[in-house]
Amino acid sequence: MPETPLRSSSLSLSASRLGDRFATLLVWLTGLLALALPLGILGFLVMHGMKVISWEFLLTGPSGFPLGTAGGIGPAILGTLYLVGLGLAVALPVGVGGGIYLSEFAPRSSWVRLLEFAAECLAAIPAVIYGLFGYALLVVFLAMNISLLAGGLTLGLMMFPIILIGSRAALTSVPGLERESALALGVSRFWVVRRVLLPRAWPGIAASVVLAAGHAAGSAAPVMFTASTVFTVTDPSLATPVMTLPTHLYNLVSEAVSFDHAYGTALVLVVGILLANTLSLLLRRRLPEQS
Q1: Looking at the whole model, is its pTM more than 0.90?
Q2: N or C: which end of the chain has fewer CB within 10 A?
C-alpha cells in the first residue's frame, strides 16, 4: 500500500522529536560530566588533604626527614605571594597601558592587528617556554641567578598578555555613546580615558588581573627554572630563591616524600585558584553592556 503524505509527515515528525530528545540527553550528559570532573577532583583533594590542614600546616615550614614529612607550607605560600606580587608590579602598568593604547589611541591598521594577534599568541604559549626564556635571559645572560627577582620578572612576562587582552576587552565594552559624548565636549582623549572609560572598565581590568595572578600562582615551570628552591628559612629577598606551592608540591610527589602533605598542598593551591577565578567571574559581571 503506498505511503500517504500524512503518514510520511507523522514519521518525519517522530524522527525529529527522537533526534531532539537524543541531542538534549547528550547535552545534559556532557554538561554533567563537565561539572562532575572538577567537583570530583576537588572532592578527592578534600578527602585526602583535609587531614593535614591546620594553622600549623599553613604557617610553619617543612620539617622532618626526608624534608616535608612534617611541618607545613608557610614559606611556600609566602614565596608564591611575593612572586605573584612582583610579577603584577611589572605586568599591571604595562598591560593596562597597552590595552589603553590598542583600544583608544592605535589606528586600525594591519600593524595593530598584528600586535593583537601577537598578544593572543603570547597568552597561549606554554608556561615552560616562559621558564626556559627567563632562565636563558635573566638567570644566565643577565646573571640574576635563581632568585625572587628573576622569577617575578618571568611571571610578569607571562601575565602581561592576559592583562593586555583583558584590559582592551574591558575598555572596548564601554558603550561608544559615552565616549563620543565626552569627546563632543572638547576634552582630550586622555581625559576621556581617565574620567570616563577607566571608571567604567575597572571591573573587567581587575578581573583580568586576578585571572592572570591565579594563572601565575599555579604555574610550576616558570619558577622552577628561575626562582625556586627546596627549602628556605630566611625571609624572601630579591636576590635569593624562594619556595613556592607548585614546586613544593612537585618535590613532594616526585620524591615520594609524603603524599598526605602533597594532597594538603594541592588542596590549598586549588582552593586559592578557585577563589581567584570566582572573583574574576564576579568582577566581569559588573562590566557595562556594550551598545
Answers
A1: no
A2: N
